[in-house]
Amino acid sequence: MTNDKKVIAQKLKIQNTVIGGLSIITGLIYLMYLYGPTEREVALWGVVSVILGLGVLGLLLIKNFEYYRVISVALNIVLVCLQVLPIIMWFLFHGNGISDGIPQSDFVAHWIYSIPHIFLVVLNIKSIRDIKKTVL
Questions:
Q1: How far is CA 17 from the centre of its chain?
Q2: Burial status of residue 83 (CB atoms within 10 A of its CB: 0-12, 13-18, 19 or more)
């Protein structure tokens, strides 16, 4: 591997550490019902986000860069797709209550809660783009 590719590989590992950590934290926020009582599917989204975040962190254990690239691209694409619905929902329900629990929570949705999801999308796309650079 050339020096440029080694630098990009190191940069990818740092990016994936941030992506994995942020994915886990974002998932835990939904799992712990910090936004008030919500549907079971919301908590399930949190579980999936945590599992994918752990998978991204697990990539750091892969020594073969070719395997690392393929698996990293796949996980990043899945993570991008996973963020689309929460981003849309936070904007769609802005200013409305989202609690379905009894008693209902006073929590009101705001678009600003979509920022971690948007940040994850940006990081994932950047990571995919950087991986593409290693092919050329």
A1: 11
A2: buried
pLDDT tens, residue by residue, 8-31? 778 888 999 999 999 999 999 989
With 0-12 / 13-18 / 19 or more C-beta atoms within 10 angstroms meaning exposed / middle / buried, residue 13 is: middle
Residue 19 tokens, joined? 């992506």
Tell me if 44 sits within 8 A of 67, measured CB to CB.
no
Which residues fall within 8 angstroms of residue 22, CB to CB, at 6 or more apart?
53, 116, 119, 120, 123
Question: Phi, psi (5° rounding) for residue 117?
Answer: -70, -45
Judge whether 9 and 65 are in contact, CB under 8 Å.
yes
Residues near 93 by Cβ (< 8 Å), separated by ≥ 6? 109
Nearest to 77 by CA among 43, 52, 114, 57: 52
Which parts of the chain sit beneath pLDDT 70? 1-2, 99-105, 135-136
Report the predicted TM-score, pTM, of the whole model to 2 decimal places: 0.86
83 touches 121 (CB < 8 A)? yes
